[in-house]
Predict the structure.
Amino acid sequence: MAKAVKETESNHTGPCDKFIRTGDSDCQHCSLRQFALFAELGDAEMRHLTADICSGVLRRDSLIYSAGDPGAGVFTIRVGLVKLVMETPDRRGRIVRLLGRGATLGLEVLTGRPYDHTALTLRTTSLCRIPIPTVDVLHSHNPRLVLGLMSKWHEQVRWADRWLTDLGSGAVPQRLANLVRLLVEISGDSPEAVHLPPAADIASILGVSQESVSRHLAELKRAGLLRRVGPRIYRCAPELTDATADGELPRVAPIRSC
Amino acid sequence: MAKAVKETESNHTGPCDKFIRTGDSDCQHCSLRQFALFAELGDAEMRHLTADICSGVLRRDSLIYSAGDPGAGVFTIRVGLVKLVMETPDRRGRIVRLLGRGATLGLEVLTGRPYDHTALTLRTTSLCRIPIPTVDVLHSHNPRLVLGLMSKWHEQVRWADRWLTDLGSGAVPQRLANLVRLLVEISGDSPEAVHLPPAADIASILGVSQESVSRHLAELKRAGLLRRVGPRIYRCAPELTDATADGELPRVAPIRSC
DNA sequence: CGGATAGTTGACAGGAGTCAAGGTATGTGG
DNA sequence: CCACATACCTTGACTCCTGTCAACTATCCG
């Protein structure tokens, strides 16, 4: 059983504020244990080494940490969705990654440097925070943890590469479709009920204008590939999540003004 | 002193073919030691543990490894420039990263998986190959090596993120300017003599058409921001490598037909 | 119910992709 | 050292797409 991560609703700037309830961090029985950093640890080790791990729930649009903050620890997502925003000279920022259940945020602080990105929740999200010293102690007790750590790094790099190839070029409708597929994978949403981020965020992800996003989303809806089933929740046709992987988006007459 | 990495000019498909001469891998006195994986090792350890490290020189356009190849080892670049190409459904591939002096390629094989990318040289390049077991032994002898490994991973992620933000969106001339800056950083070329990759590669990096690249490069030349000083070698004006970081490319009358 | 925020749509201009043709360099063999 | 073949690069014409600006509408939240 572990402490909660600061329950104060204090100021807006600190990491981990806006926690709306305390979670228990019983790492030993956590359903994520196989995915998280501790996949390689035995029960006995777990009990002693995870005492400093905190957990909590943040509501939508909460700040987890800001780029440049001194590193306090790494975070594991129990459930939810997080965006990593990289500052750009034009002040608008750019979303460089989305992270969902089982993913690890802020690994860069393990190299002794501050956070690279600003991390914000895209929906209600439950997180665990693991202080840097705890990670250090953990892998000095169990060298096999290094493999887990490297896998987490590898995961980041693979997402980054896929982000680039799937979302970085090509026709906008295609990239939108690829984004929906990625969202299904990352968030764990069912294709029957994908939760789309606000249009402005989608624009920041794809590197296009918000209006362009809006237009093409409308087109996908008209084509019947996407159907609204709730506030920001969409059901997507199988063609959207399957066939789109390799090139051609199902051809639909581009209904201009109807 | 170490073995050379297979000097055979054998077939075109294997990794490490086309080595044109044997390099010595005297890691202990390598000028890259501070940058490479062994920054943390003492002299004594170095001597015993680096015996299996091979080195060699590859000429331009040589294959280092292919995506999906079973991982044989990681590579460190002594001097040169390497592109990582990710396969795409449209068969054209996309360049997702450039790596220069001191960088490490193929870290992903340390997680037990095959290579993620196809790695090709963009110019004559000198590499060291470190077999996976050697890395494993190295960090079981010296846990501090883990920090070096994580720094290398971090480096990959930071380049990936910067690639996305600097080259992934915005006006093409701006992205070209950003690419030139990145090239200067990565390759170590002087701004007085930057070696530009073929236009097709630049197109693959920026995710635009080759014609677009050609047109905008021509414009930069006309504007005096880029001047050809040799085959594929360009001298770039300070405005190109400095001011372009934060937004506006120096305004030059767009000389249409002159 | 009402204000604020987020999303939608139209008109227009400039930019980028595509296809196709012509030009230049590179480096190989004589 | 020169000539030639082959890549590589450049340019033009045209269409379609995307960004921008601006007005309008829907949705969310108190």
Summary: The interface with chain A takes residues 86, 88-90, 94, 96-97, 107-108, 110-113, 116-117, 139-140, 143, 146-147, 149-151, 153-154, 156-158, 160-161, 163-165, 168-170, 207-208, 245-247 of chain B (CB under 8 Å). Residues 1-18, 251-258 of chain B have pLDDT under 50 and may be disordered. Residues 115 and 139 of chain B are 21 Å apart (CA to CA). The helical segments of chain B are 43-49, 132-141, 145-167, 172-187, 199-206, 210-222, 238-241.
